[in-house]
Design goal:
The structure holds 2 protein chains of 2 kinds. By secondary structure, chain A is of the alpha/beta class. Chain A contains 14 helices and 13 strands. Chain A is globular and about 75 Å long. Chain B is about 45% helix and about 20% strand. In chain B, a hairpin with a 2-residue loop joins strand 6 and strand 7. The termini of chain B are far apart. Classes of the chains: A alpha/beta, B alpha+beta. Chains A and B meet through helix 9 and helix 10 of A and strand 2, strand 3 and helix 2 of B.
Chain lengths: ~400, ~280
């Protein structure tokens, strides 16, 4: 497709050219196994070590606290299972109502296995009900798992504050930072976070590589049992090229965050959002606009359906995503928007735009030009629009 | 991304007959904004009682808009009797097929059409028949039974794809399974049910099949098939053209001709060649 305007970076990102470049030799010339005794493998191990340091630096961890995994979902699953297995007498687990399916569906399956599960609610801005969270905790609680930032709305939970508050209660605190890592400053050293998940393809590394931070001293048992790789915390020969890739991507992201590179993205996002909200009537931004990822906006266009909007934007090469039911094949609109109490009239017509450092002002201009007429066209087609306007 | 046919894309991007017919002879409304799709369908009759004009307003996804647009095109020129025979499968077929998860869009089209016709005939508003099975989407056992029978559905997932029932909280899954089991139990071969043909009908159908399906195909190889007689389930034929001298003709006869006739007429037929 020509002229793709890619505003779906919370789904996945392009691999940075610098990342691809450092990866390529590990598909061809340097194919050694990092576990080998010979220096042909040992040289690769040194590069893997460097990558581990880079990923650790991105979140303020020590290199030996980083375990490479295949993706965010594996990191999440590993963390939750480790917490449960290390605390076999505890039968209570806590999360929020707006988590990614990697946590949401795992918790639901654990509920069926007899665990008592608390899903902490959010308010209409997507902010966590902290009192509800603290009240739910007891000596029986094995783990609290909360996302750092929401994938659909970008709303940021006060993870640092929460982690400090529950630090000394003998509860494992895990955070799914898949959307936050590489976009906002993260420093686990100053928090009480015990485990943290991240995923490379959300910050310009390839798909198929993730990491789990495990604070030194946290009780752990591996999910993938096998060889001694990752210090016995995850068996299986390392995905070397991708590890090199995520290392480079982490270094680039760290530099970008340190230099406030996200200010430019925030400005573009704000411009896109405010102009669309002005030009399109009956539209609103979903979620807390103050505590939010700088690259994300979720906008509800009332009385139109999200899939139809996406496919009409697709005609102009604009890529975004929707909280509507139809796009996912399920019949209920996004559980995140529903948990926030976004009415059906708006939830079905919610569109998420997520920017990256590769997004340009020109691309934002195209969306600003093309989207309002699409909404108008679909509203003209809708049986509800005129009724709503008359009443 | 959904795999939509070009026809679905066309009817979505260039929908036909959008809007309201102010002096419509029939109007049918289905769906709701909570459900994620809704359609209002209008038609106007000419002096002969045929549908002269039809239009729609739809809130919904691409396939909902395309199904609505297709429906308005399909009904034009039909009498109400004829229009009533349109099924959801007809709508899907008109569009070259719909993804399975989107079949409920075609069902919505048919429901709106039925409602509009009932509205015109001043038929009393059908009371909600049966009991609500799916609370989330307000679907009754009668509706589920109908869609299972008409579309030969065999799983809960199928039912969800066609009428949404079971797509919410999932509490009704046992009840839906029961309905499916009941129908499959009482009609084990619903799909394969063969209409009983009289001899005359059978011969006519064989003739038509040879004329329309078989000979056009054989003609490509300059062959020809002639029906000589039908004796019970024995179909006696004579091969002409190049077929008469072709060494492969017994294979053509057994595999192609017999297969085709069994498919189109009756699975019990046996084809035999006469000189």
């Amino acid at each position: 497709m020509n002229n793709v305007i890619y505003l779906d970076n919370n789904a996945t990102t392009r691999v940075a050219p610098e990342v691809l470049e450092v990866m390529l030799p590990y598909f061809s010339d340097f194919y050694g196994n990092p576990s080998s005794m010979h220096s042909f493998g040992g040289d690769v191990a040194a590069k893997v070590k460097q990558a581990r340091e880079n990923v650790a630096r991105l979140i303020g961890a020590n290199a030996d606290e980083i375990v490479f995994t295949s993706c965010g979902t594996e990191s999440d699953g590993t963390a939750v299972r480790a917490a449960i297995e290390s605390n076999p007498n505890k039968r209570h687990i806590v999360t929020s109502r707006v988590e990614h399916p990697a946590i949401k569906n795992l918790y639901e399956s654990l509920a069926k296995k007899g665990y008592r599960v608390t899903f902490v609610p959010v308010d209409n801005q997507g902010r966590l009900d902290l009192d509800f969270l603290y009240d739910s905790l007891s000596d029986d609680t094995a783990i609290v798992s909360l996302m750092w930032a929401n994938n659909e709305t970008g709303v940021i939970f006060p993870v640092e504050e929460i982690s400090r508050k529950i630090k000394d209660r003998g509860i494992v605190f895990h955070t799914d930072a898949v959307q936050a890592a590489g976009k906002i400053p993260i420093d686990v050293a100053t928090t009480g976070v015990d485990m943290l998940s991240l995923s490379g393809h959300k910050f310009h590394a390839p798909k198929g590589i993730g990491a789990l931070y495990i604070r030194k001293g946290t009780k752990f048992s591996p999910f993938m049992i096998g060889g001694h790789q990752e210090h016995g915390r995850r068996g299986g020969t390392e995905n070397v090229a991708s590890i090199i890739g995520i290392g480079k991507a982490a270094a680039l992201a760290k530099a970008h965050v340190d230099q406030n590179g996200y200010e430019r993205i925030r400005q573009m996002r704000d411009r896109l959002e405010s102009i669309l909200l002005t030009r399109v009537s009956n539209s609103m931004a979903n979620g807390d606009r103050e505590h939010r990822l700088p690259n994300t906006t979720s906008i509800a266009f009332e009385y139109v359906e999200g899939e139809a909007i996406l496919l009409m934007m697709n005609e102009y090469g604009i890529c975004a995503s929707s909280g509507s039911a139809c796009t996912s094949g399920s019949l209920e609109p996004s559980h995140v928007l529903r948990a926030m109490g976004v009415p059906y009239t708006a939830a079905h017509g919610s569109i998420r735009f997520s920017l990256s450092r590769y997004t340009s002002e020109d691309e934002i201009d195209v969306v600003i030009k093309r989207l309002p007429p699409i909404i108008e066209r679909l509203r003209d087609m809708s049986p509800f629009w005129k009724q709503a306007m008359q009443s | 991304m959904w795999e939509y046919t070009d026809k679905v894309k066309d009817h979505f991007l260039n929908p036909r007959n959008v809007g309201v017919i102010e002096d419509a002879d029939g109007v049918g409304e289905v769906g709701s904004i909570a459900c994620g799709d809704a359609l209002t369908f209008y038609f106007k009759l000419d002096d002969d009682g045929k549908i002269k004009d039809a239009s729609f307003q739809t809130f919904g996804c691409a396939s909902a808009i395309a199904s609505s647009s297709a429906l308005t095109e399909m009904v034009k020129g039909l009498t109400l009797e004829e229009a009533r025979k349109i099924t959801n499968e007809d709508i899907a077929e008109y569009l070259g097929g719909l993804p399975k998860e989107k079949m409920h869009c075609s069902v919505m089209g048919r429901d709106a059409l039925e409602k509009a016709i009932a509205c015109h005939l001043h038929e009393p508003e059908k009371k909600v028949e049966g009991e609500i099975v799916c609370e989330c989407f307000g679907v009754t056992d009668v509706e589920i039974e109908r869609v299972v029978r008409e579309n030969h559905l065999s799983s809960i997932e199928d039912v969800t794809d066609y009428v949404k029932a079971g797509g919410g909280c999932g509490n009704c899954h046992d009840r839906i399974q029961e309905i499916i089991d009941n129908i499959l139990g009482t009609e084990p071969s619903a799909k394969k049910k063969i209409p009983a043909l009289t001899n005359l009908q059978k011969i006519k159908l064989i003739e038509e099949s040879i004329e329309r399906e078989i000979n056009p195909r054989l003609k490509k190889d300059a062959g020809k098939l002639e029906l000589v007689d039908v004796d019970g389930n024995r179909v006696l034929v004579r091969l002409g053209g190049t077929c008469a001298s072709c060494v492969k003709s017994p294979i053509t006869l057994k595999h192609y001709v017999e297969g085709k006739l069994r498919e189109l007429v009756s699975p019990e037929l046996v084809v035999e060649e006469v000189q």
